[in-house]
Write a structure and sequence with these properties.
Layout: H1 9-16, H2 20-27, H3 38-51, H4 57-64, E1 69-74, H5 80-95, E2 99-104, H6 109-121, E3 126-129, H7 136-144, E4 149-152, E5 162-166, H8 168-181, E6 186-192, H9 197-212, E7 216-222, H10 231-241, E8 248-251, H11 254-266, E9 276-280, H12 284-288, E10 294-297, H13 300-315, E11 326-329, E12 332-334
Parallel strand pairs: 1-2, 1-3, 3-4, 4-5, 5-11, 6-7, 6-8, 8-9, 9-10
Antiparallel strand pairs: 10-12
Helix pairs in contact: 1-2, 5-13, 8-9, 10-11
């Protein structure tokens, strides 16, 4: 069977009876600068959607030249974890002649989709993304169009895409076993309601450790939120108030630990005398808190290094078949006073 011919800008122009230049302006987001009518813009965009046209990013790069810009799309760029990696990536990108554009998705698919569309039209060279839920199709489209893409913090099982992640399940298992070895027999896992790979893996590691050790455990799942919202904290406060027998808590991420520690303080649940605490995602605050909090530290420097190494590898192979690079890095458990 013969391969289906790829539709070109020339084909679109011929079909619609307009110039190739006009189609190019519209596809590349420069129509309004050229004072092309809204009616014509819509006509071209509707036809493009109808035929499923995808611009060839490789061809654009060869024709227009590289922008030397990489997009870094994080869940929340103000979060210490993402901000630290962003700063490290910026330095590594600059050393290799690239600039970084930062943006936050707020874990919102529609916002992520709009951001991707905007940056595609500006002919950026590649995307480093912490994927939101339901972003599979958009990632596949980027890859189909020839954009280098590297995911981090989480990956998408159904999409063959490069990613840099850490050992979430193994580290959660280690952190939970640490609580059990310190004498905890009634454990709690605090996380968010999420289908994202990193949260699923951390929950799996927690459960496996509890089941392997035959100890009691329960889970408190909160909606995805930011620290300004009060409702999740109130639910956490109510959860612990109704369960005074809990003697060990594993927080799936540091901002949940902040809220949990606040709740324990209100309930006068002494740490580590009454219950012991471990959190994923170490934070400088954990060294300032009294008592200092045991936490799992992700290798930020190595994550940034592998992200840029993988991106640069893809950027150097634009004319070759995309071959996903999959990196999984080890974490470190920093034992402190909260588990004494």
């Amino acid at each position: 069977m013969m391969a289906k011919k790829r539709v070109s800008i020339k084909d679109i122009a011929k079909k619609l009876g307009i110039s190739i230049t006009t189609v190019s302006f519209i596809i590349n987001g420069k129509a309004r600068e050229q004072r092309i009518s809204e009616e014509l813009i819509k006509k071209v965009q509707d036809y493009i959607d109808e035929i499923g046209y995808k611009p060839n990013h490789v061809a654009q790069s060869l024709r227009l030249g590289k922008s030397k810009v990489i997009v870094f799309m994080a869940e929340d760029i103000s979060n210490q974890f993402f901000a630290s990696i962003a700063r490290l990536i910026e330095e590594k990108a600059y050393q290799n002649g690239y600039k970084i554009i930062y943006c936050s998705t707020d874990n919102d698919h529609e916002k992520a989709k709009e951001l991707i569309s905007t940056f595609k039209m500006r002919n950026v060279d590649g995307f480093i993304i912490t994927p939101t839920p339901n972003l599979e199709k958009d990632i596949k489209n980027l890859l189909d169009e020839g954009f280098p893409v590297v995911l981090f913090d989480r990956w998408i099982p159904d999409v063959s895409c490069s990613h840099v992640i850490v050992q979430n399940e193994e580290s959660a298992y280690q952190g939970t076993m640490h609580l059990i070895e310190k004498g905890c027999r009634n454990l709690c896992f605090v996380s968010v309601m999420s289908t994202q790979s990193q949260m699923i893996d951390r929950a799996r590691g927690f459960r496996k450790a509890a089941q392997d050790s035959n100890v009691d455990y329960q889970e408190c799942l909160l909606k995805f939120h930011n620290l300004a919202e009060i409702e999740p904290y109130e639910k956490l406060l109510e959860f612990f108030e109704q369960r005074p027998g809990i003697d060990g808590v594993f927080f799936a991420t540091n901002y949940l630990a902040f809220e949990g520690l606040q709740a324990m303080g209100v309930l006068q649940r002494q740490v580590p005398e009454k219950l012991k605490v471990v959190s994923f995602d170490d934070h400088y605050f954990f060294n300032l808190y009294k008592p200092k909090i045991t936490a799992i530290e992700q290798p930020l420097e190595m994550i940034a290094e592998k992200l840029m190494e993988t991106m640069l590898e893809h950027l150097g192979e634009l004319d070759k078949v995309y071959k996903p690079v999959k990196v999984v890095l080890a974490n470190r458990l920093n034992e402190r006073e909260s588990t004494l």
